[in-house]
Amino acid sequence: MPMVTIKTEDELARMRRAGEIVAKALAAVKTMVRPGVTTLELDTAAEELIRDHGGVPSFKGYHGFPGTICASVNEEIVHGIPGARVLRDGEIVSIDVGVIWEGYQGDSAITVAVGEASPEAQRLMDATQAALVATIAAARDGARLGDVSHAVEATAAGWGYDVVRQYGGHGIGKAMHEAPHVPNWGPAGRGLRLRAGMTMALEPMLTSDGSRTRTLDDGWTVVTANGDLSAHFEHTIVVTKDGGEVLTRIADDAGPDRE
Question: Which CATH number characterizes residue 20's domain?
């Protein structure tokens, strides 16, 4: 795995463009999520948009992964393979998108309700988004990597949820996965000292009961061991003195840089 690096302004500009395409793809796919749509339809739309904007889907072919997006439904945590599965009212689906632009990467994920979410599912999604906001805020110059990890775990615990311990965030740049690995749990005040210009993909994954996982026979799809719901949100960020600046945001979005 490549070592963590401080990105130059030119590198960050390319990552911002990759991130913008990621954000556009996620926004487009989100509008398509409804009962009766297949996960393959979502995948096809995402690939068309990415390529139309001059990007390359970074997931497709990565270690043999067959899709442009990861589409993980209900108890599926990450790496769900898009296909013939038809989405049904009341389900939730996590959509993960990666893009390469001029050799640099962006990576982001959202969890979306299919139709109307149950109160249980909506609360889990809200908690996972809150964990993402907290971990982005913790990614500031001079902080420790453990501060970023602990922010996820503390937020999840505050909502009464568990974090998935086997998977987490990662450095990102020229490669999709660079150092450091970013666990979604652990004590604050430990680990790598963060410096402005480091780039990471932060991705809380929360479950409604328990953190154990298993991988399906397809070799990719990771599910909760007990079949309970999971939600997943992710942004690519650059560390600054004020926290993480989100790179996977549409450039003309009037919202703040930090969630």
Answer: 3.90.230.10
